[in-house]
Design goal:
Layout (H helix, E strand, L loop, with lengths): L1 H33 L6 H22 L8 H5 L2 H33 L13 H35 L1
Helix pairs in contact: 1-2, 2-5, 4-5
């Protein structure tokens, strides 16, 4: 079960990406070959794109793959460097908790009665990707942070 939860973001993002590419490709072919676009194609592509972005961000967080420029932090004295790392981690928790989870929940709940024009799908099902991505990113960030503490303490024991 742990492994499934660890890989669920990869699975969702991959399925959404494959769906996005497939529908976009089919829509382009339909538009240019038959002069008849798939009416719901753009709607579903937009929804899948939102899922790819927010769930994919979680997958990237899991691998610690987000871009960071540590040049200036590395030049600081150890005390200031530690303070900057702590400040960074606090800011990441604040953004994930407030923006992604809290505001994302509010956005999803406000969008409950708003539906897409063609398929009549509630925007709740599109916007909930923000919240789910935030929860998964929070989980992976916490796990990575916890692992960095255990790695740091094991290195200090070797000295």
């Amino acid at each position: 079960m742990k492994k499934f939860f660890y890989n669920v973001d990869d699975l969702i993002a991959t399925l959404a990406f494959v769906g996005l590419i497939s529908i976009t490709f089919a829509n382009v072919l339909s538009r240019y070959l038959f002069n008849s676009p798939i009416l719901w194609g753009e709607e579903v592509s937009l929804a899948l794109y939102v899922w790819v972005v927010f769930i994919g961000a979680s997958s990237t967080m899991k691998r610690d793959g987000h871009i960071g420029i540590s040049y200036f932090i590395d030049k600081l004295p150890p005390t200031f460097r530690t303070a900057m790392i702590v400040a960074r981690n606090v800011m990441i928790y604040a953004v994930l908790g407030y923006v992604f989870i809290f505001l994302g929940s509010a956005l999803s709940l406000q969008a409950t009665n708003k539906v897409t024009p063609i398929l009549r799908i509630s925007y709740f099902w599109i916007d909930i990707a923000v919240v789910l991505g935030g929860i998964l990113m929070l989980y992976h960030f916490t796990k990575n942070l916890s692992n960095s503490f255990s790695t740091d303490s094991s290195l200090k024991g070797d000295m």
